[in-house]
Amino acid sequence: MKIFLLKSQKFYCLIVLLLLGNFMCGQTIKGRVTDTLENPIAYVNVILRDSLNKQIITYTTTDEQGKYEITIEKVGKYVISFNALSYQPKSEKIILEKHDFTRNVKLQEQATELNEVVIQTEKAIVVKKDTIILTVGAFLKGNETTVEDLLKNLPGFHVEADGTVKIGNQEIEKVMVDGDDFLKKGYQLLTKNLNADVVEKVEIYQKYSNNRLLKDIENSHKVAVNLKLKKDRKIDWFGNASLAYGLTTTNKYQVRANAMRFGEVGKHYFLTNLNNVGAFSGGESSIYVSASDLNEVGAIGNMEVARNLISLDAYELSLKKSRFNLNNQELLSLNSIFKINEKMKIKTNGLFSWDEKTFEQQSIQNYTTSSISFTNRESNLINKNLFSGSGAIDFDYDISQNELLEIDATYKRGNEDSKSRLEFNSVPIHQFLSDHNERLMYKTIYTNKLATKKVLALSGVYIYDKKPQNYTLDTVVFDDLFPDVDATSARQFSNNQMNFTGFEAHLLDRKKKDDLLELKIGFTNRIDFLTSNLDVIGSNGDESISEFKNDLKYTVGKLYANAKYKIKFGNYALNTKLDFNQLFNKFESYGNEESQSPFFASPSLSMSYEFNENNNLSLSYNNNFTNASLLQVFDNYVLTNNKDFLRGGAGSSQVNSSGLTLGYSLGRWTKSFFARARISYLKSHDFFSTNTIIDPDYSLTNIIRINDSETLLGDVTIDRYLKFMSSNLKLNFSFFKSDFKNSVNDSELRLVENTSYEYGFELRSAFDGLFNYNLGAKWNSSVVKTTSRFSNTNNTSFIDLNFNFNQNFNAEIQSERYYFGNFDTHKSFYFLDFETKYKMKKNNVTFTLTGKNLLNVKTFRESFISDIGTFSTSYRLMPRFLLLGVDFSF
User: Fold this and answer.
1) Which SUPFAM superfamilies match (predicted)?
2) Global pTM?
3) Res 26: pLDDT
């Protein structure tokens, strides 16, 4: 509680500000919209503007009974307008005083002839049932370069530091261009590269279905985005190119180009991105990212991967990655959609990425437990050469109006060569890692709409994933582990290969009362092959094959069935689910075989109560069994870095957990107020933990299976538009508390209590004028208790200022502050960036001047805590640079 009270005065001030926004001078405008026969009209757009009819103050839509309600803080003169398809629009001037205001409206029907051209005034926000259309011109601030920049300025959108796009609190499913999906979940490749200037409207699809035959049948909570391009840009080939080069720092550059063509038969989107300024292009991993919803139709196999045993990577910092990503990237992406005929369509994707990365870091590791106390110091310079090439072919065949066949094939191949110059406690060590990977995925989905509200989907998948690695150390510090060898160097070859096949049948049946029955049956078979050999080399050059080696085959077959039923009665909704799983596990290692055939059932139950469309309470319970993975069963040690070893050893087994979640939401993200609160309790009846032997020169970690672990977590999000200051306020609070057990140096099982709090705010203006701002702060407090107690509190804050001097000239200043109140030192880091843009609209040319890290911060230090000590790491950062750029359209 003491940790939570840190900085509490600032946090309470934000709560007071929110409450004042709720209660000061709140008036309500409400009424009913009908036609001339007094029939209610649903989904009428009700928009409230200022007295000059320029700036949108707020908006809403009528419900099924034609009713609407708007809350406004300020009294005064306004213009309220009513718009609906097939009806004549209507606007009225109103004077709002300090009491509620009722305005009932009748709309005249408007007939539309096919040969008639109707010109209507463009509306900034249009709501049509599950679709929201935003005209981007009404929200531009002048600082938009890419689609990602554009989305940051649209109401309801939030773009996180890693490029993830959210609407409200939910990540979007995809970003389409004129109704076509080029990249599925790999949308960041598009949002980080496509120019914002080509977009005219952004359409938001709520309750989105990836499969057209599932629309209005499945319970979808997905949100998708469609970019409508400007008509004058879609003439044959069009696109843009951006070129920027360093003024004060030599050889700093950033090149970005897009080329598109949207024809009747073929649609193409090609892009390239070259830079050495730390920028991420959105295609660092793969062009094809599987859907994250494992319960949707056809999701079988989406999360199945083979994992690397060892990686020479830098620690993840809370700092923006571009500040310490010393890169030299070249990326090319080729995407096409071919319409063979009215029923057949083929989509092809190709992505090729080359990169050279450098990470320079220093770390101090203080280990403190009841049995040990020592400090390790490391200085490390890592150089990585990476190549990744991947391609995908999707074939869609509309067999009939009620039948659809989808065939997807994806292939990826990559190489990574890493070199590390490490100094460990003054001992120089050179590390070399050659890492190769290959993955093939083939999936077929056949969907048949058996009736108006009944669909059967059959899915089949095959995955091949292989990741061989060759790791070499020219100096070893763990020679005490091999007393019979005068060890001076070592090398380890490993190969982790996975084959996965699966078949699934999924039936969805929407009943007359809108209840939904889902039945699913399937069989999957995963086979993992793991080989690893650690060779220790003596001072005389002799090789000794250690006992640290593995040669195993791990097979997991699963026959499963589940039934799910959702029933709604009145304002209540009940969702029940029961999973049945029959496993067939087989473990083979050096001639030894172990088999296991467990059966288990997992129930889940959720209930919700909807007070009204903006007020919902939910409660859910689930029980899960999780089978041991490959990394928990292999029975001999593998080397995972220059001094740490890992062994599975938990055996082929399952762990059981159950959870309870209570949630409440008030308002909607499309309204001026939205709040969500959630609290979850998770009980792990048994779980996989660790028994670790820690020595200054090495560590040996064994996976063990023990009983009882508890986790409590929760979060609160509040989003409110403050009309009196034309700004949007977001408040966030989350907490995490976990109790579990582990063992260190063969001690008795010890209790580890891990508690953390995170809270913060963000305030973003929506002024229609010269100046706009975006500011925020976030605090993170953590406490870890074992035989010792470790704690720290960190703070991150930022202020962004935007100046839109006119339609052609814009400037933006960004500042950040990072504060670490850790251990014996208190350290703050400050960063300052800016960007200016001048547009020559007649020539479709934009000039930019960009400055990064203007204060020239050279190193950044961040600290962490765990149950075995405290750790501090510093990084060399991207130096200060200025880029002069030009962007031209064609």
Assistant:
1) Carboxypeptidase regulatory domain-like, Porins
2) 0.83
3) 57
